[in-house]
Design a protein that fits this description.
This protein has 12 helices and 7 strands. The protein has a 7-stranded mixed sheet with strand order 3-2-1-4-5-7-6, sandwiched between helices.
Length: about 300
């Protein structure tokens, strides 16, 4: 017999070597699956810790690469830029006190994400509230640390992941989200919700892009802004990840001298005043669109 001729071999022995011979029979058919499951379980037991450690390492490396890329892109004195266009620390502290202090009084372990020059951390400390911050900008982190504030220089998302769940007494973000990519914002809000205590507050301030004045001026003055974030979008995202009792506030109206002037109607007859009242209503609508408040904030609870 020519055993190199497989077709003849198949025909004589009725063996189809190109097909699966089928499952084993008898005791072997019961033993092999159990043995296979046992081997798989042992492999998983041995490899999963290694895989998880590798995954954590990879995430940390990616975060560091992102941070290095960002720092490379911002290879200039951003702190000086902030001092020129953001406003004085005293003015920012005053605004934050009027707007947000009430949500964090009586709390502890409040986290200021993107804490900048540390105005809000100081405000909380002055009012008996323990707080800490995370800031990716090297100069700003050093400045906060020089004041004695508990501020870590790190990527905010990676910093949050290392915290215990249900441990943060509140979260504050001021003029930060407009710097971030959409996917990062969603992940950041998810982590905030996961790490915050029940009933604690989150307050996020950004540029009010429903105001053309704010869009043209404070938003585009800072060329590190990635994209505007509409207050309704921000509100939706917070609700989407689980926050509740959400409300939107608007602040910082432009000076009245910049707005369109209404037509005085005193002394006019009733019929004349009716015509100009319509014009004045349209002036109000135009002013709201052109010269609306420059800042907006969405506040919610876990």
């Amino acid at each position: 017999m020519d055993y190199d001729d497989y077709d003849i071999l198949n025909s004589r022995k009725n063996i189809e070597i190109n097909k699966d011979p089928g499952p084993p029979k008898g005791l072997i058919s019961k033993t092999i699956p159990r043995l296979r499951d046992y081997i798989h379980a042992q492999i998983r037991f041995l490899l999963e810790p290694v895989i998880n450690q590798q995954r954590e390492f990879n995430e940390a490396v990616v975060a560091e690469i992102k941070a290095l890329k960002l720092l490379k892109k911002l290879d200039f004195d951003y702190l000086s830029f902030e001092n020129k266009f953001r406003g004085s620390p005293e003015e920012i502290t005053r605004r934050n006190g009027e707007r947000y202090l009430k949500y964090f009084k009586g709390s502890s372990n409040v986290l200021d994400i993107g804490c900048g020059r540390g105005e809000f951390i100081k405000l909380l400390a002055d009012n008996g509230v323990t707080a800490n911050g995370v800031e990716i900008n090297h100069d700003m982190a050093l400045l906060c640390q020089s004041y004695g504030f508990d501020v870590k220089e790190a990527d905010a998302l990676e910093y949050l992941k290392r915290l215990e769940d249900d441990s943060v007494g509140g979260v504050f973000m001021c003029q930060l989200v407009e710097h971030l990519e959409p996917a990062y914002i969603i992940d950041l809000l998810r982590q905030c919700h996961k790490k915050m205590l029940h009933d604690s507050f989150i307050a996020i301030e950004t540029v009010n892009v429903t105001s053309l004045f704010a869009l043209v001026n404070p938003f585009y003055i800072d060329f590190t802004h990635r994209q505007p974030l509409h207050p309704e979008t921000l509100k939706f995202l917070l609700e989407y990840v689980g926050f509740r009792d959400l409300k939107t506030e608007f602040y910082s109206p432009p000076p009245d001298k910049m707005k369109l002037k209404k037509i005085p109607t005193s002394g006019m007859s009733k019929s004349e005043r009716g015509k100009f009242d319509i014009i004045n209503e349209n002036i109000d609508k135009t002013n709201n669109f052109l010269y609306g408040d420059q800042d907006c904030a969405v506040i919610g609870k876990k």
